[in-house]
Amino acid sequence: MRRTRKTKILATLGPASSNPATMRTLFDAGADVFRINMSHTPHAMLKEMHGHIRQLAEETGHHIGILCDLQGPKIRLGTVPNGARLLKQDEKVRLVLGETTEDESHIPIPHPEIFQAIKQKHALLIDDGKVRLRLLRRGDDFAEAAVEVPGEIKNRKGVNMPDTLLPLSAMTSKDRADLDAALALGVDWIALSFVQRPEDVIELNQIVQGRAGCLAKIEKPKALESLDEILKHVDALMVARGDLGVEMPLEAVPGLQKRILRAARKVGKPVVVATQMLESMISSPVPTRAEVSDVAQAVYEGADAVMLSAESASGAYPEAAVTMMNRIASSVECDPLYRQIIESQRGKPERTVPDALMAAVHEITETIEARAILCWSASGRTALRAARERPRTPIIAATPSLATARRMALVWGAYAVVTPDITSVDEMVDQAVAIAVREGFAEPGEHIVITAGIPFGKSGGTNMLRVAKIPSK
Question: How do strand 123-126 and strand 159-160 relate by DSSP bridges?
Answer without folding.
Answer: antiparallel
